[in-house]
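Bug #77: duplicate submission created two jobs. Keeping one. Sequence:
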Amino acid sequence: MRLGIRLLFAFFLINGLAAFFVLRVFMAEIKPSVRKVTEDTLVETAYLLAAQASDDLADGKLSTDASHSRFARQVQAAFQQPLRVWIWDTRKAALDLRVTVTNAQGRVLFDSAGQDVGADYARWRNIALTLRGEYGARTSREVATDEATSVMYVSAPIERDGQILGVLTVSKPANAVQSIIDSSESKMLRGGLLFLLLSAAVGFAITWWLVVQVRKLRSYAQHVQGPTLQEAQGNLLPPKMPEVPDVPGELGDLAQAMDSMRRRLEGRDYIEGYVRALTHELKSPVAAIRGAGELLQDELPAADRAMFAQQVVDQSLRLQNLIDQLMQLSQLEQRSGLASAAAHTSLRACAEQAMAQLQATAAQKGIQLVVQGDDSQGAWDAALVTLAISNLLANALDFSPAHSQIVLTLAPQRLSVQDSGPGVPDSLLHRLGERFFTTPRPNGERSGTGLGLSIVQRIMLLHGGRLQFANTQPGLRANLDFSAQD
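Kept job's structure:
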């Protein structure tokens, strides 16, 4: 699972659980809180009305005929008066209260609903508790299986001179406040949903931002791996080092640490590979020079002394050639491209110049250098192209038999060098151009440095071209293709 998905999932999980528990607590508290407020209001209303009814009950006006009671007439008039009241977003058109007055025996003397006058309420819990001087309240359902039919009853004692004369009860149906509860729950649900959506948007934005920053670091890490490791494949130029990603906070510190680590490790593989290969190549000539030097310290015949002295010279020249080619290759590998103002260079002119440099060596071996084909020009570095052709010719001279031909064939944007030597086993063709890789010369002659074709490979990469080899039986053909850059 990707980092972004994990972060987003974790954010949604934590946020969802938090929202669930918070909403659950609020939703669970809405109904009890509304009922507490309702009961508190009913208590105050009951005690106020009980105080108003005490005179009429003490004078017997409620006991004989409620119509003679000023308190009863005022309550009835209040219930008959229409209401035009908006409580926040809820409209109230009538009183939802019901007021009853019972005597000390629990018999109903007054009922604002006009239903239960004369009924015995003494068995009701709220009446019985109030008559005993305790707080009387109850909630009952008119339909036992329907909570919506619940009615809340609150009673207050009607007293005179410390004596309880009766009980005034105020009741209110639950459905009268259910609309308030439903409205509050609906608002909370909408607010919770909006909160979740906003939190999701914020979480997605934060996660996306973090993933983008991490991807910058990942891309940077992928691009700064050692160029020489890719270069050893023989088909890539060293990539341009990307800029350190501009990311804030700890991620920025991590980017700077990665860049510092890159600078410290840069070139380590390159150097290690070079040292191993160079050490292997230096062992033979150094050993030969040391052996010849030790023998020259003894008394030797003149012929043997001359032979060993010549061996010292030959091996010294081999070391010098190796060092020169290493320096050439190192300089080429430090270049990321050609000069911006490269002139139009003639491929034939470069070929003829390279042939002139090796004409003496070819004449000593009786090998004829021939150039044919049509010339072409391009924005190439003349010195580098000449060096590449020279190295191909030198390699061909090492493998060509005496009194043979080496043919340079020109074509548009192309040049090939064909010799008449033994060629290279097909299984080793793909290794030509690797540093220090050589194949045995004909007649058991010593191998070269293994750097000449690496230099050619590097020059072609700088020109955006390709170096290719093919066995022709007999001989080997090396092709320089400059058209690959187009």
